[in-house]
Each structure stands twice: as C-alpha cells, then as structure tokens.
Amino acid sequence: MITNTELEYKGDLYPTAVSSVQQEADSVFFHTDNNVILKITVLRDSLIRFRYTTKGYFSNDFSYAIDKSQSHGYNFLELIEQKTFYQINTSKLICRVSKTDLKILLTDLDNNVILEDELGFHWEENYNFGGNIVKMSKVSHDGESYYGLGDKASHSNLKGKRVENWAMDQYAFHKDQEPLYKVVPFYIGLHNRKAYGIFFDNTFRTNFDFAQERRNVTSFWAEGGEMNYYFIYGPQMADVVTTYTHLTGKPEMPPMWTLGYHQCKWSYYPESKVREITSKFRELQIPCDAIYLDIDYMDGFRCFTWNKEYFPDPKKMVAELAEDGFKTVVIIDPGIKIDKDYWVYKEALEKDYFCKRADGPYMKGKVWPGECNFPDYTNPEVREWWAGLFRELISDIGVKGVWNDMNEPAVMEVPGKTFPMDVRHDYDGNPCSHRKAHNIYGTQMARATYEGVKRFAYPKRPFIITRSAYSGAQRYTSSWTGDNVASWEHLWIANIQMQRMSISGMGFTGSDIGGFAEQPSGELYARWIQLGVFHPFCRTHSSGDHGDQEPWSFDEEVIDITRKFVSLRYQLLPYLYTMFYEYINDGVPMLKPLVYFDQEDPQTHYRTDEFIFGNHILVCPILEPNAQGRRMYLPVGNWYNYWTGELVSGKKELWVKTDYDQIPIFIKEGGIIPKYPVQQYVGELKFDEVTLEVYYKLGKEKSFLYEDAQDGYDYNKGRYSFSTFTFNGKENQLIIQQHKEGKFEIPYSKFKINLHGLPFQVKTIYIDNERAAADTIQFNGNTLFIDKDFTELHITGA
Ligand code: GLC
After folding, report:
1. Is 14 in the pocket of ligand 1 (CB under 6 A)?
2. Which of 83, 283, 507, 510 minimizes the number of CB atoms within 10 Å of its CB?
3. Which of 535, 376, 504, 385 shows the shortest CA–CA distance to 65?
C-alpha cells in the first residue's frame, strides 16, 4: 500500500491571483491564471459548498453521501467586489474570497470570524496515480474545540489529534486506534461560542489534523479526488448537526421491535441452542426481541445458504421463534465463495458482477469461506441483483433483519487487510480504482441489502445493520462499532463512540454489549448493560471463543440488573421511538453530548461521560469497578435524580451516590416522559393506558410523544399521532396542554399521570375546563388517570 508520505514529494502548489469571476444562479466561479477554479455554491443561507479544480474544468459531480431528495434554498445572495476581495453575502453569512490567493474568510453578519483559511486550498500532483493530493488548512484558535467524525475511539474533543479515514477491519481496536470501520469526514468546530461544521465529501483516504502538527492550524487532505467541502454555520451546534444530517439524509422509521433488546453471539447453533437461548429469556423474564444467527448458520459460509444439519427447517424455526416474539436476524457478508456448484457464485460469474483487478482477473481474497470473489456494489445493476437474492430469506423463510459484516471490505492474510488498490469499480458510471471506492464499498453493500430486504419485507419495514459505513449510510442502515473488547476502557470508548455517531448523523448505533473479544466480569457486563439500554441500538454480542455472554452466564445479581435495565428500556420505548421520530424528521441527534446541550458552558467542552438521552433524560455511566457512585457534571438547569426524586440544580460538579443496580440518571425538570408497561417483546401486550411521568418545574417546558402502528408505512400517509405537551408550572398550579397531530388511532384510552416534585397539595383538578370529580380521575396521591385526548389538564394547589 502506498501512503501519502512514501510518494515522491515535489512540493505544494497554490492558486494564483483571481483572473475572472462569474455568477450563475446559486453559484459563483472564481478562475485563476493557473487553471484553478473555485466554485462556491450557496445551498442555504448557512450552508455553502466549496469545490476546487486545478484542471480548468470540473469532472462529473457525483456523490454517494448527499441525499438528493432533500431540497435547499436560500433567502438572500449577493456578490460584491471590493478592492482586495470578493464578497458573497447571504442572510446569515459573509464569505470573502481574496483576489491574490483565493483564500477564504467566513464571518457572521457582525464580522465575527467563524472560519479562516491559513494556507487555504493547495495541492500536490500525484505522480504515481494521476490527479492530486488535495489539501486544505484553516486557522485554529486557542480554545477552539472539535467534535464529530463518526466512530473514532478517542476523546470526544478532537483538538490535538490527527485522524485517518480509511474503512478498516480493526479486531480488538484500542483507544485512539486509527483508522476504524467507518468514514464520516465531518467535524464540528466550536470557537467563541459559535459552532460551524465542515463536511469534506471525498471518498479517498482522508486525514484531519486538529492542531496536532501545528498548534494554530487545522487541516484536512485526501489522496485523490477533489477538494470538495460543505461549510455549515450554526451558531448553535444543533443547527450544524441537523443541517449536516439533512444534507446526507435520514432513515425511515425503524420497526419498533428493532429498538428492543437483541441477543447475539458468534454463533448460536444448532437450532436447539437457539431455542434454548430464546426460552431462557422468557423464563427469566428478560425482555428480548431479536436473536441473531452468525456465519455458522450457512453451509460452509456461503451467503444465502443454510447448514441443513444445524438448521434442518429454517422456515419452521423462524416461524416458531416469531410466535414467541423473537425476530430472526442473519448475517450476510460480501465475500462469495469461489465454488462452481454454488448458485450465487455461478450467477455473479455469468453476469460478470464481481470486482476486477486492473488487468482483468477477478479480485480474489480470503474471508471466512476461503477464497472469494466480491460483488461490485458500486454498480447499480449489481445492487439490483443482490437485492433480489433476499427473496427466499425474507419472503419465504421469514427472516426480519440482515446483518452486513466484513464490508470495509475485509480480506484476510494480506497486508492492508483489504483489496489491492488497482481493483476497478463502476462507481455508478464513474469508473475508478479501489482508492476511491474503498470507503464507500460497505455503504453500497448495505444499500443493496436494504433495497432487497425492503422489497421482500413490504408492507413491513426492513432492518439492516452494517459494520462499515460512509456518510449518508444512515439512509439505509443501522450500525454497530465492530470488534471491541471486554474491558473497562472499552466501556468508556463505547460511550463516546455512540455520542459521536449521534452528532455525525448516524444515530442508530450500538456497541457489542459486554465486549466482543475476551470475557467480561459480571460487574463489567452489568455496567455495560446499564449504559447500553440508553444507546439507540442495544445488542449483546461476543466472539464466543471465551465463555458465554448471555445475562445468565453471570451471577443472580447481574441477571437482576439486566432484567431491571432492559425492562426500563422497554418502558421507555415510546420515549425512544419519539427520539427516533425527531431524528428522521428534523435530523436531531438521539444522544446529545453535554457540549451539544450547552455549548455556552466551557465546562462541557471536554466532558465525555454524561449525555442526554432524547431531550429530558441525562445519563452518566459507571465506568470503573467497585463504584459506590461517581463524580459527574450536571449541566445547566434543574434535574431530578431518577432514583431518589431529589431535585438538584446544575452547572456544577457533584458526587452522585448509586448502588450497584443503579447508574446516575437525572430527569430535566418540566419533562414529561411516556412509558409503556414492561413487555417481553414489542407488541406482546395490549394495554389500555400509557404512563406519563411528569416532573414539575416552575416555568415552561415542551415534551413530545410520537406513535404509529410500530411497523409498516401508514405513518407516511398521515397515520401517526404526534402530541406536543406544554408544561407550565406556577407556584401553586400546573397546566399541561396537549396538542395532537396525525390520524393514527391510538389503541389505548387513557394516560396514567404520575406527578413528581409537586410543591403543593392538590386541591382542584380541571380537565378541558371542567372540574373533574374525584371518581372520574381516580386521583390517588400524585397519580391520576385522564383521557388520552385531553387538551388541558389544570391542577391547582391549596
Ligand atoms: C466479525 C464481526 C463479528 C462477527 C464475526 C463472525 O469479526 O465483526 O461481529 O461475529 O466477524 O461473523
């Protein structure tokens, strides 16, 4: 593998002075004497694209990451010429382009510098491969912080670090390991309380240096392709993240069962073992919705086949598991075994769908089945064929989800652990080498899988999970963080990775709970479950070459803790589902790091452990053995200790005492948290009431509740229910107003309202302006029942 540094270095090249400027609709083109063109496109008033070429013309504009279904539009755009620079004004930003060297300066309308070129755009001709190594450097200020970049296993604030984006199978990775499985070339900068984002949409190997090499410089570069980045202005981090997520796309609603608990291992077989595992969950009353079959379910690791000795009648097994509430998810890898008697291999060979080396032969590499060829998922025809392969698994056998692994792509026993760089790819009609297609390969595999599962699962929703991903993959798939380790350090890493993925547009992610490699102690497993139930994707997985990793592999206490926390997750399903809805609708990250929650407070800039789950629940995991509690930071606002009910004011560090079966959880005052009864799987119970936990606040607060049929697409036709609850607390009264949208008929009739922290004794209760008689609302202590369609609940105190 040739890396940047091994190439013969002939010096950097820079743009010369601007020779002409033209505006065409939303774009302004700046030409220099040395054939550089900078194209600046205003997509929104706070979203600007910068594209550079050194050839005097632009190549075909194609991106897998950008969601083409999203619309953009700006309110205002003007181009002004000044003595030494050109200036583009939008209603939110000013962008100056220097006439002498094409350097960019971005400011807000008050002339506060948001981001400024240091050397700006420069490049180095790539003599070995053609094209350029394209580079960008920006000024980095003292006190500036950096976040984002997907699955990086480093401190959440990336200041002082250099990261590399090259999808890589990293078994048992460690803290600060580079590169990892996913590629999300998007970061958020925070300086002077203003946040901005950069999305460098380039699938070649990229690097980002956040003031590591030079103290006041942040730079990013790619080994080929174009300097092509999007600048997103906040000033709130929330604006940056939602705009980025809008740009690269959002998923559809997942079936609700996918938000339940999943159990996995490499591997559960034969069938009797699978049934033993699922029965044990029911026996111990630990809720569980999904059981996974790892590679051993296949016949010799051939995708789309079954080992009939282990699984003589998969259809019957899958159906019987389904009767007990278990959805079956199976693994499908990209490597197709070279075997002339294997139908998938034969078909792909006949149709010429495998990736080829530059000189013609098929790309051959070893994975689990031995020597394999690999479909070129960057070819739309191949994706279509691949999608069709899922017919039997999904339509006939009844599998509910597909797990895509090894799609970095991973190759065994070779340096670099992947394809040679000369391998050719279609890249949707923009033919290229593996240098360009590598980082997108996994996403295109997951996309093809998604198309297939969606087609055959219809009218139900599909479920896909992938290991490798590039920006935009969230439109098709959920993900997990790959082969982690059963260690306390990895628990810390998992917590950061999930927050980071959330603010990088890919929120539907989880870690292998308990750790994939090595064996967790019961205590570590318990601490991991306690965190994992607050991650959008919640699955225990392990490599199986050590001991077992089912909850009952540990002692009674761990079983009880697992039951308690997984049950809590099931109670919180409507809350989690609502978080998901805000994510797919508005791009709001499901987990919010403290810096996202309050960027004004510098104390949050280097916090790693605490995060907000949804809008109102603050979670802080226990990351050390033998803890009786921990020190943590509570951000701005007043918070109820979930376990004790005590109200604590934030913006301070505090010691929180917790028992072994607890972790610090706080509820933001004013929050209304919906809860379902505990079910052993989604849809197990029919219930007539939903609980609303109401946390009193002096003042106003909004909460939401989204519901639909929990599967299917009717929600797209307006059959959903979205309630906005406005809480308004005064000294001796409180008012909760409900505003409802959508046409979904909710199957339950009432809310059970639990009032927490009321500072007064309840005297009267009015529902929709009518005084409620005690017997109609069953008022009891701080609990009352009320029709689910209420519009106003007004409680006054004595
Ligand atoms: C890879 C995956 C892991 C899986 C194993 C066998 O290591 O990351 O999750 O269990 O392959 O398929």
Report:
1. no
2. 83
3. 504
- Coil/strand/helix, residue 186: strand
Judged by DSSP in three states, 595 sits in helix
CA–CA separation, 579 and 558 (whole Å): 28
Q: What is the pLDDT of residues 407-463, one digit of tens each?
A: 999 999 999 999 999 999 999 999 999 999 999 999 999 999 999 999 999 999 999
Is 592-668 the same fold as 4-248? yes
Give the SS3 label for residue 473: helix
331 lines ligand 1 (CB under 6 A): yes
Instruction: Specify the ligand 1 atom closest to the Cα of 266.
Output: 10
Q: Provide the annotated active-site residues.
A: 405, 408, 483
Pairing assessment for the beta strands 792-797 and 762-767 based on DSSP bridges: antiparallel
**Percent of the chain with pLDDT strictly greater than 90:** 96
* Three-state secondary structure of 68-124: CCCCCCCCCCEEEECCCEEEEECCCEEEEEECCCCCEEEEECCCCEEEEEEEEEEEE
- Of all protein residues, the one whose alpha carbon is nearest to atom 5 of ligand 1 is 266
Could you tell me the CA-to-CA distances from 278 to 95, 189, 330 in Å, in that order?
59, 46, 15
Q: How far apart are CA 606 and CA 590, in angstroms?
A: 20
Domain 592-668 homologous superfamily, CATH: Golgi alpha-mannosidase II (2.60.40.1180)
User: Domain coordinates of the chain in residue numbers?
Assistant: 4-248, 592-668, 686-797
Cβ of 467 below 6 Å from ligand 1? yes
CATH class given for the domain over 4-248: mainly beta
Length, in residues, of the chain:
798
Distance 541 CA to ligand 1 centre (A): 9
544 CB near ligand 1 (under 6 Å): no
Domain 686-797 annotated CATH 2.60.40.1180: yes
Any ligand 1 atom below 6 A from CB of 523: no
CA of 231 to the centre of ligand 1 (A): 37
> Is 478 in contact with 465 (CB distance < 8 Å)?
yes
Strands (DSSP E) found in 260-377: 261-263, 290-293, 327-332, 336-337, 365-367, 370-373
- Beta 290-293 vs 327-332: how paired, if at all? parallel
pLDDT tens digits, 296-351: 999 999 999 999 999 999 999 999 999 999 999 999 999 999 999 999 999 999 99
Residue 29 in contact with ligand 1 by CB distance below 6 A? no
- pLDDT tens for each residue of 369-384: 999 999 999 999 999 9
CB 86 within 8 A of CB 21: yes
Asked whether 575 and 270 are in contact (CB, 8 A), the reply is: no
4 pLDDT higher than 70 = no
Q: How close is the Cα of 449 to the center of ligand 1, in Å? A: 18
Ligand 1 closest atom vs CA 265:
10
Q: What pLDDT, on the 0 to 100 scale, is given for residue 8?
A: 59
* pLDDT tens per residue, range 23-75: 999 999 999 999 999 999 999 999 999 999 999 999 999 999 999 998 888 99
The residues near 758 (Cβ < 8 Å, ≥ 6 apart) are 696, 734, 782, 797
SS3 annotation, 414-456: CHHHCCCCCCEECCCCCCEEHHHHHHHHHHHHHHHHHHHHHHH
Alpha-carbon torsion (335, 339, 345, 351), positive or negative: positive
CA angle 189, 194, 200 (to 5 degrees): 30
User: How far apart, in Å, do the first and last CA atoms of the chain sit?
Assistant: 77
**Omega before 459 within 30 of 0, i.e. cis:** yes
Contact predicate 248/47, CB 8 Å? no
Residue 122 main-chain phi, psi, to 5 deg: -150, 170
Question: How many of the other CB atoms lie within 10 Å of CB of 88?
Answer: 20
Q: How many angstroms is it from 266 CA to the middle of ligand 1?
A: 7
Which pLDDT value is given to residue 6? 52
Angle between helices 556-571 and 573-586 (to 10 degrees): 50
